[in-house]
Structure formats: structure tokens, C-alpha cells
From TrEMBL:
Catalysed reactions, semicolon-separated: 6-phospho-D-glucono-1,5-lactone + H2O = 6-phospho-D-gluconate + H(+)
Name recorded for this polypeptide: Probable 6-phosphogluconolactonase
Hydrolase is among the record's keywords: yes
EC code(s) of this entry: 3.1.1.31
Keywords: Hydrolase
Pathway per the UniProt entry: Carbohydrate degradation; pentose phosphate pathway; D-ribulose 5-phosphate from D-glucose 6-phosphate (oxidative stage): step 2/3
Start and end residues of each Glucosamine/galactosamine-6-phosphate isomerase domain: 11-240
Annotated organism of origin: Lithospermum erythrorhizon
Cellular component terms (Gene Ontology): cytoplasm
Signal peptide: none
Record-linked Pfam families: Glucosamine_iso
GO molecular function, one term: 6-phosphogluconolactonase activity
């Protein structure tokens, strides 16, 4: 059972300030202890909520050269396609920080969904072998220092959707989906054992459109099935970052 905190902020802007402080504190801690800080991004609205890290004091003080950046999920589209999670993160965040390009691990967009998932898993395996990514002693799955996750209004996280058999994948590190209910249909995604091996997960949720599912996940909302977001249970610490609107039904 993970250590769970729920933090509610007056606005998304205040949430973004707190998320920057939280990320900065973890960056300082891991960069002091180790030669790398492994950070996993999702796509969607999360990227905009990282904007305060691009401002002083963080932009000038974080040890960006030790950051290694991954994606919890990616759409199988070219890197310059408007649906690409890589492009979203590059335009909104990565192009504005002094991170070595070799520390940014995008999927291979020349491959099929199956091929890209396999290739990404191989890439992660190499980084585990070289000690850049840690390993969970409990499960043997790769253990990332920080995952910054968003959540869809249906309760999906990464590309793990409600009712889809992929939520039960318990062997692969990275898998693929070809029938995503949210377009585009072809995606690759980390599996729950990888997500849940994490040391820290921030679940960042803003806006009234997600209040119902936040209520289901954290309040006494009823649902006939367990939503993917309810399956997020890291070995380390889970922190929900909610704005007032997302928390309005709690
Ligand atoms: O399709 C996706 O959606 C989720 C949620 O996106 P949001 O815009 O509602 O925050 C995102 O976390 C995931 O990475 C993405 O591929």
C-alpha cells in the first residue's frame, strides 16, 4: 500500500507553482545521491502544468544535465506530428531546459506499434544494466525516480484505458495498443508493474471536467469497475495535485 497524499490548490496556477517546488526538491535529492534523476512524462495537460520549472529559481539551479527523461506513453505517429507526446513535451518543456539530447528517450517513430514497444523496452533494459535506471528490489521491474502522470476524464492513465485487457498486463515493461478509445488508436505504454515500481508518482489533475472521476477515485463515488487511475499504487509515494475545480465533488 503506497503512501498517498492529496493536495488541493485554489487554481491550476497555484498547483503549477507547487508542482515545480515538488519536482525541484526531488531533483535536488536524487542528483545529490546519484548521477542520474529519472523522470517520466505523460502527454496531455501535464506538460503545461510544468511551466513554472522554466522560471527562476528552477531554470538556473536544477542539475538538468543529470535528468533522464522518458514517456509513460506515446502515440505511434511521427515525432513532428501534432498528436506526438514527444512533440508536446519538446515544444512546451524540453526545448527550454539545458538537458543533454542523449538523455531524452523518445520512442522510435519509424517502427510499428509492436516494434516501438519492444524497442523502448530494450532501451529501458540497457539503461537498467548501465545503472541509469534503478530496479525494484520487490518486483524486478524498472524503478523510476519520478513519474509525472495525467489522467483522462474517463480515469485512464498512460494509455491504459478502463475495461481494456492491457490494464492486466503483468509481465511486459512496455506494451502497445491498436484500439485506443481515445485517438490516435495506436500507442505504446508502460504497464502497471512499471508504473507501480516508481519511487514517486505525481498525479496531476485540473479542471471541472475531471471532478466526477476524481470523486470516483478518491471520494465515495460509485463505479462498477476499478478505474486505471485507481490502480496507481507505487512502491514509494503517490501525491495527487488537484485544483479546486477537479476536487469540487470531493
Ligand atoms: O492520451 C493521453 O491522455 C492522458 C490525459 O490527458 P489530459 O490532456 O486529459 O491530461 C495523458 O496523461 C496521456 O499521456 C495521453 O497520451
Amino acid at each position: 500500500m503506497s503512501d498517498k497524499k492529496v493536495q488541493v490548490y485554489d487554481s491550476e496556477d497555484v498547483l503549477a507553482v507547487s508542482l515545480a517546488k515538488y519536482t525541484s526538491n526531488l531533483s535536488q535529492k536524487f542528483c545529490k545521491e546519484r548521477t542520474s534523476f529519472t523522470v517520466v512524462l505523460s502527454g496531455g495537460s501535464l506538460i503545461k502544468s510544468l511551466r513554472k520549472l522554466l522560471e527562476p529559481p528552477y531554470i538556473d539551479s536544477l542539475e538538468w544535465s543529470k535528468w533522464h527523461v522518458f514517456w509513460v506513453d506515446e502515440r505511434v505517429v511521427p515525432k513532428d506530428h501534432r498528436d506526438s507526446n514527444y512533440l508536446l513535451a519538446f515544444d512546451g518543456f524540453l526545448s527550454k531546459i539545458p538537458i543533454p539530447t542523449g538523455n531524452v528517450y523518445a520512442i522510435n517513430d519509424a517502427l510499428s506499434a509492436e516494434g516501438a514497444a519492444e524497442d523502448y523496452e530494450t532501451c529501458i533494459k540497457h539503461l537498467v544494466s548501465s545503472g541509469i535506471i534503478a530496479t525494484s528490489e520487490a518486483t524486478g521491474f524498472p524503478k523510476f525516480d519520478l513519474m509525472l502522470l495525467g489522467m483522462g476524464p474517463d480515469g485512464h492513465v498512460a494509455s491504459l484505458f478502463p475495461g481494456h485487457p492491457l490494464v492486466k498486463e503483468d509481465k511486459k515493461w512496455v506494451t502497445f495498443i491498436k484500439d485506443s478509445p481515445k485517438p490516435p488508436p495506436e500507442r505504446i505504454t508502460f504497464t502497471f508493474p512499471v508504473i507501480n515500481a516508481s519511487e514517486h508518482i505525481a498525479l496531476v489533475v485540473a479542471g471541472a471536467g475531471k471532478a466526477g472521476v476524481v470523486h470516483t477515485a478518491l471520494g465515495d463515488g460509485q463505479n462498477s469497475e476499478v478505474l486505471p487511475v485507481q490502480m496507481v499504487s507505487p512502491e514509494g509515494e503517490l501525491t495527487w495535485f488537484l485544483d479546486k475545480e477537479a476536487a469540487s465533488k470531493l
